[in-house]
Amino acid sequence: MKLLKPWVSLAVAIIAAVFIFLGPGDHASKLMLAFGYGALVLVFLFGLIVVIDMATGKIDMSALISEHGGGASMSRFQLLIFTFVIALSFFLIVLHQKGFPEVPSQVLVMLGISSSTYAVSKGIQAGAKLPPKGTS
After folding, report:
1. Which of 24, 78, 97, 129 is deepest in the core (most CB within 10 A)?
2. Four-CA torsion 92, 95, 98, 103, nearest 10 degrees
């Protein structure tokens, strides 16, 4: 990871320089294009570093959808799956339309319901751990 950080910065700088000098349009549009692509490459490379660390075991994923007691959590799994499905769907729409689409209210409702299910599950778990009222 320490070795990749200078390469990430160098890659972003090279891509930004290419778009500044070779991109179409005036200087302001070239700078905006270079900044946009530089940020995109930077986010991609940081994401790649996270994925590599997950694959090599440096980031522990064993408790991602498990409860504190060790069992699987349906609410965490549901939130994870809904988030990945919606993120992948929007990614494919952006690739197809070459622009960010309008976010339908139904998608936000579905994510809200999934997040609420997780929040209620956590509330029930926290309430089950509290001692009954009137006892110390």
Report:
1. 78
2. 20
